[in-house]
Each structure stands twice: as structure tokens, then as C-alpha cells.
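note to self: the first set is below, dont mix up w the second
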Amino acid sequence: MNLVTREIVELDDVEVSSPFKPIRSFKSKQQALTQSTIYVYCPTERELEIGTIVEDYSFDIVVNDYDLEELSCKVICHFESAKLSKEQRKFLVKATELGAWVEPLVSYLDERLGYTEVRLLHSGYFLHQKAFSILSTRRTQLAKRLIDILASITLAIVALPVGLITMLAIKIESPGPVFYRQRRTGQYNREFEVIKFRSMRSDAEKSGAKWAVKNDERVTRVGNFIRKTRIDELPQIINILNGDMSIVGPRPEREVFIAELEREIPYYRFRHAVKPGVTGLAQVSYPYGASVEDAIWKHKYDIYYIKHHSSWLDVKILLKTVKVVLFGMGR
């Protein structure tokens, strides 16, 4: 990705009655999402910050090129446009009139990347609650709850033999309880006890809370298998029926880690605007990891899920989860 910045010029000569006519315009958003170059307009003091964030993208970005004359079939994104001058905002309006595809930078990147670039978020992104159907539409919430209940009951019946075998295997391999209960933070920052099949030694946290890591030596042999196949999550059916969790949503985290992560990740607690899930977009889109950088990436998918939630997206996540279970691609 190449980042180009241009000096801002005065645009007093740009009038609404400009004689220029659009030569062509995008016929679909898909065309806009495949452009090799996009143009971004933002306050001057944010240019370097945007350049640092987007340097790994596979497409080029030109920042604040107000000399651009051919605007048809250009992708033009704006960031913190309220801080732009009247003339600069007029340029963006004119771009729309002349056939450019114009929209907020974060929204465009959402569609193109499949996740939300959380480092570009500011408070205004979250203040338009009606844009988040999962938060504002009662019908969506009721439908999701109904699906959770029906899916949980069905899963409980189908998975009962697997659960019984798992309980026996855990008991045979290592001393300690079959189930593991742990305080997690859920919707509206309320804590609840998540229930799982125990996959670690019973003394796994005798010296305090620790991040789980890949090839964690605290994990038992049975635990390693049930974690990879997500069988350890089956008891969370109880959490779903209790209303603490949903089938699909951001994974619930422990408060001790949340306090650490919210110092590093912008708006980390916004994930608690919805119920946590047994599976989620982050779990099926990003490989296992236990660092702050991994948490940032998972947060990108969680915010995207909350903003773009739909029943169809839930179905796609569940289908990907089935693939994970069948082929042991879990953590």
C-alpha cells in the first residue's frame, strides 16, 4: 500500500453549478470495493495516523488530494468530516454529484476487509445506535433469543451421548470436577458464571489467572481434544437457556483481562452491548492467540459483528463452527 498526501488548497471556485458532468459512475458497490486506489479526506493532523494504520492494506490510499479533477468512478472516503472546513466538505459533496463513490472511511473498510478497523473508531461511530440493528430492533432481539432457545434444546438432545462420554473421560484421566465454572463479563458488563467441561488440570491457576496459550502444558490430553473440537463448550447450553449467553456473539472474557485490554484497545467494552456467544465471528475468522495483538484482531471482528448483525450472518458463523468441530480446527 502506498500512501500519498497532498497539500490542501482553497476551493472557493468550486460551485454547485459546476459545468462538469460525470462521465460514468459505479453500477454496484462491488465495483467500489475492488478499486486499486481510494482517496481519503481527513483533518490534516490525522494524516500520519491514518497512514500508519493502513500501511498493510493491499490497495493504495491517497490522502487529501483536493487537486483531483476527474472524480467519476473514484472511491472517496471521509474521516472526521465534521472537522473539515466548509470548502473541503463542499468538495466531498461535489464528488458525489460527479459520480464518485463517497462514504465514511470506516464503513468502506468494513465492507472491503470484513472486519472493523478499531483504531479508526471515535465516539461518533457508536452514537448512531439505530445503525446497529441488533441493539435497536426489538424484533431482531426476539428472533435471536428464539433461535438461541431452539438451537440449545436441539443441540442438548443431539450432543447428550458425546457429553456423557466426555464426562467419563475427564474423570478417568485426572482428579477433580468434571465441570469448570469461571466468572466472565457478559452483556451490560454484568458478570456471570460460564460453565465448561474441565480441560485443564484442577490446579491450573493455583498461582493466579493466566492467559491460555497454544500448546498450554496445563491442558490434559482429553482437554486438548475437547478444546480443538469445541466439545468443552457444550455445557454452555445451560448459560444460553439461562439468558446469559447466545449461540453466536463475542466470546466472554474475564474481568481481570478486560481491565488490561481496555487500556490498549479502543472501546473494548462495547462488545458487552450484546450477549456473549459460544461461538462468534472472531472465533471462526482468526486463529488461536493469547496476546494483546490477537485480542485487537478479535475485537475488530466482534465490532463488525455487532454493527452488521443479521440472521444470515449468524447462520454463516454456525456453518463455519461446524467445520471447526468436524475437522478439529479449534484452539
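second set (the one i keep forgetting abt)
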Amino acid sequence: MTTLADLGVRIGTLPRGSTNSVIDVPGAGLGHATVVYDEPNPPEGRGLARTGVTVVDLGGDPFLEPVPAGVALLNGAGELTSRSQMDEWGVAETPVFLTSTMQVGRVYDSACRLLIEEQPRIGVDDFLIPVVGECDDSWLNDARWMHVTHEHVRDALAAARASVGSGIAPDQGAVGAGTGMSCYQWKGGIGTSSRVLPAGHVVGVVLLCNFGQWDRLTIAGVPVGQLLGRPAHVPPPPAGSCLGVVVTDAPIDHRGCERLATRIGLGLARTGSTAHHGSGEIFMAAATGLRAPRGTASAKAPLTGRELDPYFEAVVDASEEAVVNCLLSAHDVTGVGGKTVPALPREAVAELLDRHYAGPRA
């Protein structure tokens, strides 16, 4: 796995966390279940799978102690379940599950089953609406078949829980929900990055990257896409989507989380995104610093106004870097119809950055 830090490039002035990932946020986790198989006769088998599930764990038990959360919509051709609940109540009550478009129902159902097994008060004290987001991986994945199973969701959730506090950087690129995704018409998938604030809080970002046009790709201000030139492979359509999740341990309320989530779009724009008509750029943020027992309010005062400025900066910088980490970490994937989406050529990118990048070094 290669990241932007490995190339000696630094985005912004805030320091990265120790793993430069969302797991640097105390209590947060990130785990994947990757689903890859080939069965050439779908009527008798399961078709071709290049898909999966990724889980962002918010730590603790968000059903008993909901986490202040908010959603921002840049372009709405996509889905994030529980969005209306977050709009109304201002909290998230489950981990965040990411997958491909046609698998949302399966993941939602499995999330309910798994969380009910863990928490006997679900369905007794109140109902549960899992947070499930998606992007379309049908360029590489045979989306007419239901590939994701209950076991895949279980494994991704278990992996996310196991990553909490591990200090081990999670996998990125063509893993989990990102297995079949493309970014800037190269291989995309999952990207993550983190920033440490002067107050000691941490902001982590996770992106499911499935968007962009090759000639707009920009890395740390360098027009890498144009300098590389048109890809030799047959590229996926230049639209797609991006699901983004911000997690922080800062004391930020629902409205502040909405504002944090909005800033993911600025990070994407720095890399060249214009949020095409067919894209689903849907972002959420969750802040564990104000979580409190169900039905009660935190005694802490939320950060407001200009106090949020460094957190906005952290989200923008970490989002920009998460896109690049996704691209640099991905590997070539061949999928449905024999189509191949290669990884961004890392050595060529490193040479271009050495030659053209004039900013601070990592």
C-alpha cells in the first residue's frame, strides 16, 4: 500500500495522525470484507463479483449512546439510509456501512440482524435505522447478482471493531466496498486520512471514491492527469459518486457536524471533482465528543462559530489526501466483460510530483 506520505508530499499544515487514517480517532474503526469470485454461468452460479462491504465503526454502543451526526448533500444521485433521522434527531445510532448500489438492502438487513444480536434493547426500547451508503460498481462488478452475504457484513463489522486502537493502518484502495470502484478513470475505492488538531482532538475521513475524469486529476496542486496524458485502457464513464464519512472526537453538535460534512466537497474539488450530473456526493460527519446516554443531553458545551475553523481545515485537507491515498493504494482489477481498470502508475506520479510539486514535504 502506497500513500501520499510515502511520496514525501504534505497537504496543509496540520499534522497527520499516527496511522494517517480514521482509526486515529479514539474509538473509531475501519474494516472490510472483499467479495471477489468468477462463476461463468450465472443461471447456475453467482456470476462475477468485484464488490464488498466496508464498515466505519463509531466506537462504543451508538444505540445506547447516540453520536451527534449530520449529513451534507453535494449531488444527490445516490443513497445514504438514516439520513432523514440524522436530519431530524441529529444523531447516528449505528456504525456506517458502505457497499455497492444494488447491495444496500442486503447490507441493511444484515446490519439490523448483527446489531440486534449485540444489543437486546433494540426493538424493545426503540427501533433501529442502520446507516448504509453506496456507490455504483457495475463497470467491473456484475450488479445483476446479489453477491454480498450476511457473513460478509459480519466480517466487515468484526474487522472494524478489531481495528479500534490497534495502531495498524487499515487497507485502502480496491478493498471492501471499493473493490469495483473507479476514480478519475483509474482504479479507485477506499481512501482515508487524518489530522490532529491543536486542541488534541483528531479528525478522520473515510471516502468511497468512484468519480472523476482523467484529465482533471490534480494531486497537491499538480495537474497529474494532464501530465500523464490519456490512459491507454478503455476508461470507465467519467461520472460516478463519492460517499464520505468524517469522524472526530471533538465536542461538536448536529449543526456543526453538517458543516463539517459539507467541507468534504472542498477536498474533492481540490483533486479535480466537479460533481457530475450522475454523481452521488453524499457526506456525513459524526462527533463522539458530545455523545450521551439515549434520551439525555451532553453536559459539555459544543464548539461553535470560529472555534470550528481548524476542524473545517482538517476535513478539507484529509479529504483531499484520502482521494490520493485511495488512488495510490489501489491495484489493477479486471471485471465483468473482461474490462480492466489499472491502478494509477505510481512511479510516474512520483516522478511528476518530484518535478512539479513545490509545497511542504512530509
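remember for set 2: Residues 309-329 form the longest helix (21 residues).
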